[in-house]
Amino acid sequence: MKIIFMGTPQFAVPILEKINKKHDIILVVTQPDNLNRKKIIFSPVKQFAINNNLQVFQPQNINIENEILFKESADLIVTAAYGQFIGHKILNFPKYGCINVHGSILPKYRGGAPIQRSIINGDKKSGITILYMDKKMDAGDIITQREIEINDLDTQDSLFNKLSILGSELILDVISNIEHGNIIRVKQDESKVSFAYNLTSKDLIIDFNRSALDIYNQIRGLNSNPGAYFVHKGKIYKIYASKLSDLKHNRKSGTILNADKNNLIIACDNGSSISILEIQPESKRKMNIKSFLNGNGRNFFIKNEIIGE
Question: Which residues constitute the domain of residue 250?
Answer without folding.
Answer: 202-299
